[in-house]
Amino acid sequence: MRLQVWTLFANRHRRTLGLVALITTFGGVALGIDRPKGTVLEWLAPPLLALGGALFAWAAWPPAATAAAPKSAATKVLDRITLHGRLVPLFPAIGVGIVLADIGYNVLLSATPAIKTEDTIVLLGAATLLAYRLVPARFARERDFVFLFFACLNGILVLPLLIARAYYADFDRSVDLYSWVALAPETSAVLKLLGVGNNVHAVTGSTAPGLTFNPLRLSVPVTVVITTACSGIYSFGIFASALVAFVLTECATLTKRMWLVLGLGLGAAYLANVLRMVVIVVVGYYTDSGQTDLQNMLIAHSYAGWIIFLSWIALFWAAVFRLLPIDPGGRGSSARPAVPLRSSNRCGICLGALTPTLPAARCACGMLYHQFCKPDTERCPSCGRGMETPERPHRPRSDA
Fold first, then answer.
1. What is the pLDDT of residue 91?
2. CA neighbor of 58 nearest in space, from 132, 125, 129, 8
3. Number of other CB atoms surrounding residue 271 within 10 Å
4. Banded pLDDT at 281 (limits 50, 70, 90)
């Protein structure tokens, strides 16, 4: 009985499940990339990823007997990219070519053949090409989401780095380039506006930029080296890729509001990343002394960044789920959920079985619904009528 109730609740709140899945998955990925070693948070990454994956599977699993979803913006974009599907048969060959190219790059051009973060992103993108045609048609939307996600992730984290390495003719150039361009100068500028004097400079023995400031309670300057792990570029790339893929796969057309959501999401995520670094430095500037030995700043580095970015993701995705015209049933963007043919043993909303233990109501059009699944508007999603059970006609009593 309790399992049936939870199943009905989950089917009715797929959007909420999707939001919780996004938050837990982002939390697990962030902790996995930038682990605060020596703290309990280091061990939360695997369970968060497992929970997020399970919730994603539930939210994305297509209900039985749903109507075919209209073409999404992702379908239209991929249709153009693949020349109306003519390139799709070549996806496996392209995927194999990308794998070989990555291996060749590591062996011939890179200082080490080891598989690093950027190689992992490239190989996962190649895997989506290899598996693209193997995914059943009923999971086309989920397949397109994964494809677009890894395409965007490679476009944000890998392609700019390759272009920079080719431009500088230095194929060993560190990914710390992101910190030099997109984080250290901006963090320094915001700190100066807050009255925290600092300067950005090169650090001997490191390819990452250093940011030096003088804490109020210390007589010596402190230098923070902003490495790639500190830059938050991976968290930003994951968020931006997921946002673009989600909007394209969930919306039939990219309206002005969709473009506005995309622009605000990417811009605000970048600002949240800069804010993370600013908070870390400000904590050390105002609170650390000779007795604390920069422990306050180190604690902020381990916890504040993860909490700030995860909080931002939760707020933003909640707003996106409220603003975008997403089908709560999870299949397409139609305003009305798809319903099966009239049946005496299926709920017209969750498509679950009608049993004597779960109270049900019948609409005047003949559709049956669980009382638990009745929408707040009390309107039938099939015909739009009120969902009150029609009264039986009164039969005059005969004394004969």
1. 94
2. 8
3. 13
4. very high
CA nearest to 120, candidates 175, 167, 77: 175
Task: State the angle between helix axes of 159-167 and 140-157 in degrees (0 to 180), rounded to the nearest 10.
Answer: 30
First vs last Cα of the chain: how many Å apart? Answer: 47
Residue carrying structure tokens 């996600």: 149
Reading across the β-sheet that carries 198-202, which strands appear in turn? 198-202, 209-213, 222-225
What's 36-84 look like in SS3? CCCCHHHHCHHHHHHHHHHHHHHHHCCCCCCCCCCCCHHHHHHHHHCCC
Average pLDDT for the chain:
76
Give the helix, strand, coil percentages of the chain, each rounded to 5.
Answer: 60, 5, 35
Assess contact for 171 and 110: CB atoms under 8 A.
yes
Q: For position 198, what pLDDT does the model report?
A: 94
For residue 386, give the DSSP letter: B
Phi, psi of 261, deg, nearest 5:
-60, -45
Task: Select the CATH number that applies to the domain covering 339-392 from these four: 3.40.50.720, 1.10.760.10, 3.40.640.10, 3.30.40.10.
Answer: 3.30.40.10
CA distance 275 to 191: 10
DSSP 328: T
**Distance of alpha carbon 172 from alpha carbon 174, whole angstroms:** 6
**Segment 11-21 mean pLDDT:** 66
Beta-carbon-side half-sphere exposure of residue 93 (alpha carbons within 13 Å):
4
- Domain positions in the chain: 1-61, 70-174+231-278+289-338, 339-392
- Type of residue found at 297: M
User: Could you identify the residue written with the tokens 């430095």?
Assistant: 281
Query: Tens digits of per-residue pLDDT, 130-151?
Result: 999 998 877 888 889 899 999 9
Predicted confidence (pLDDT) per residue in 293-345, tens digit: 888 888 888 777 677 777 777 777 777 777 665 544 444 433 334 333 344 56
- pLDDT band for 215, please (50, 70, 90 cuts): very high
Answer yes or no: pTM beyond 0.70.
no
Task: List the one residue out of 314, 253, 316, 304 whose CA is nearest residue 280.
Answer: 304
* Residue 262: CA count within 13 A, CB half-sphere: 15
CA distance 224 to 172: 23
The pLDDT of residue 222 is 92
For 32-44, what is the mean pLDDT? 60
Q: Where are any strands of DSSP class E within the chain? A: 198-202, 209-213, 222-225, 360-362, 368-370
